[in-house]
Design brief:
77% of the residues lie in helices and 2% in strands. By secondary structure, the protein is mainly alpha-helical.
């Protein structure tokens, strides 16, 4: 790009040929490089702010779900323990009588049943806790898309800066 071409672009900018819309240059091909870089920097900063807000939102959602699921695990475990204790005291006596005074055998049977019920409840709650995953999936997908967009913008800018043989109105 020649020095005269830069002056012509700056003069056009001053005359308002490339209008500004909300502080942004409407015609990228007529804008000076500094304005384009400033606009790119502003857009990138805004994009990062939005991504940060999305990540915060997803982490709040994940935290709420974790608290709910952890509470379920705690309640299930407590109920399983209380159930095991209550069953132990009542069923040991009942089965001990039915087994002709073999209270040790009745205690074993009651303990295995209580443990099995509690184990099933804890396993179910743990499956609920780990099923959806903890990664902020929407944020990760959005950041990948942003990265792809930024690479494309940089590639286009590099191409425009290195391709001096094509007239400015033809560049894209």
């Amino acid at each position: 790009m020649q020095h005269d071409d830069v002056e012509v672009r700056l003069d056009r900018q001053r005359e308002g040929t490339a209008p500004l819309i909300d502080g942004r240059i409407d015609d990228r091909h007529e804008a000076p490089l500094g304005a384009l870089l400033k606009q790119l920097t502003g857009d990138t900063a805004e994009l990062l702010r939005q991504e940060l807000e999305l990540a915060k939102s997803e982490l709040r959602e994940t935290g709420t779900r974790l608290v709910r699921d952890a509470t379920k695990v705690g309640v299930a475990t407590g109920l399983a323990m209380m159930g095991g204790l209550a069953l132990t005291t009542s069923l040991i006596v009942g089965l001990g009588v039915a087994l002709n005074g073999n209270y040790w055998l009745s205690a074993l049977i009651v303990g295995v049943v209580a443990f099995g019920v509690g184990y099933a409840m804890v396993k179910s709650a743990m499956r609920d806790l780990t099923a959806p995953g903890l990664a902020p999936k929407e944020t990760i997908a959005s950041l990948k898309a942003d990265q792809h967009w930024a690479k494309g913008e940089m590639r286009d800018l590099k191409h425009e800066l290195t391709d001096e043989t094509v007239p400015p109105h033809v560049r894209r």
